[in-house]
Write a structure and sequence with these properties.
Nucleotidyltransferase, domain 5; eight-stranded mixed β-sheet; 15 helices; 16 strands; globular; binds adenosine monophosphate
């Protein structure tokens, strides 16, 4: 019997999918429908033999793209659909079995994630229409961080902004931090250890995890807070918005655009948001690239040091995400900035640990791990757990 879960991650013009079998030795089918709504919309993916395919979907909307995805599942009808939903507000502390009431509650969080939740809801509605008989589960990026204590999630703002408008720190990348910290527990044999996890990709965040629970994280009300990212600024002075408005006459939309799309590694380097290109440019003596990598690493180390205050005991650090998994240079520079953590990097093993490879990279002292994240696998696992609980 087929026991795979179809994991769907819906953006405003894209759908990422993965058919995740319960048995990890069976192949996953995965792919991406992109540029939906445009003449050059297309579906790209990999079949069960590892062969890649690409199919034109001119003018397709989300519903049509889902039908095309269904045809690519090679007749393997999933047992359930797991949806990645960016924001679950305070209502969702774990994955939820989707019904009309849950959909209405997700709609109420749209104000907190105006860019992401509407797209997630579009995908949810189209998938429910296509698979009316399949159970569907919502897995939230924010849910893992609902264990944060008030001292970590409250901003020092008037209480009414929290009570009446939900203005607080929520944190994101929860699925990734949950997966990586659980994996660190399992690999180290320290069930319930104290971990700092660094998810470093195009978006970047760090998290303090104790006994499997998130106690603090670097992202906040929105995914803009915290670390320097590919094109996002991360933390800036909260007075910056007023300053730019008064001095340069910038609108809020312009400020939002600059902080989200023109800043971070791209803004600092004046070159690119791609860490591979920055490393090559630094080696060629590009001063902007050098500065971008230096600020990026320093801010990660500073954030990890701050987050360590949340932990009763620090057992180690785990790196993940495109940069965390691949860039031995970033891992080396970040650990070098934390000598007081008692970290000793094994430089040889570090330089050999690249994408897809799980490994321990310390030479004694506190543990250092590279753990490739598996958000799709984690969404499938949480979907199964939720269904099992519902059936019990
Ligand atoms: P993600 O969003 O997790 O896919 O990560 C994207 C980031 O990972 C981009 O900044 C890439 O430049 C970076 N990345 C991917 N491969 C490498 C690599 N071999 N070395 C350094 N950075 C990499």
């Amino acid at each position: 019997m087929e026991t795979s879960v179809l994991v769907i991650n819906c953006g405003s013009s894209s759908i990422k999918y993965a058919l995740v079998p319960k048995d990890p030795s069976r192949p996953r089918l995965s792919g991406l429908a992109e540029r939906l709504g445009n003449g050059d919309a297309r579906l790209k993916g990999t079949d069960s033999h590892g062969e890649s395919f690409e199919q034109a979907l001119a003018g397709a909307d989300h519903a049509r793209a889902l039908e095309a995805i269904l045809e690519r599942l090679e007749g393997r009808l999933p047992v359930a659909v797991g949806h990645r939903i960016v924001h679950g507000g305070e209502r969702f502390t774990r994955a939820a079995l989707i019904d009309d009431e849950v959909v209405a509650a997700i709609e109420q969080t749209v104000a907190l994630a105006p860019l992401h939740n509407p797209a997630n809801l579009t995908g949810l509605a189209a998938t429910r229409r296509l698979f009316p008989d399949l159970p569907q589960v919502a897995v939230f990026d924010t849910a893992f961080h609902q264990s944060l204590p008030p001292r970590a999630y409250r901003y020092a703002l008037p209480e009414s902004l929290y009570r009446e408008h939900g203005i607080r720190r929520y944190g994101f990348h929860g699925t990734s931090h949950a997966y990586v910290s659980r994996r660190a527990d399992a690999l180290s044999g320290l069930e319930g250890g104290g971990w700092l996890t660094a998810h470093l990709g195009n978006g970047c965040s760090a998290c303090a995890v104790w006994k499997g629970q998130s106690l603090d994280t670097s992202m906040g009300l929105t995914p803009l807070e915290g670390l320097v990212m590919g094109t996002r600024s991360g933390d800036v002075d909260p007075g910056l918005h007023a300053h730019l408005s008064r001095q340069l006459g910038w609108s809020l939309e312009r400020i939002d655009e600059v902080l989200n799309r023109e800043s971070g590694l791209l803004g600092l380097s004046g070159l690119t948001n791609d860490m591979r290109e920055l490393e090559a440019a630094e080696a060629d003596g590009h001063p902007g690239a050098t500065l971008a990598i230096e600020v990026f690493c320093y801010r990660i180390a500073k954030s990890l040091a701050a987050l360590s205050c949340a932990l009763p005991r620090l057992d180690g650090l785990a790196f993940t995400g495109g940069i965390g998994e691949n860039s031995s240079l970033v891992r080396e520079r970040v650990t070098a900035l934390l000598p007081h953590f008692g970290l000793q990097l094994n430089r040889t093993v570090n330089s050999e640990t690249i994408r897809g490879k799980e490994g321990r990279i310390d030479a004694g002292g506190r543990q250092l791990w590279v753990i490739p994240t598996d958000e799709e696998g984690q969404i499938a696992t949480e979907t199964r757990q939720r269904l099992e609980e519902a059936a019990a």
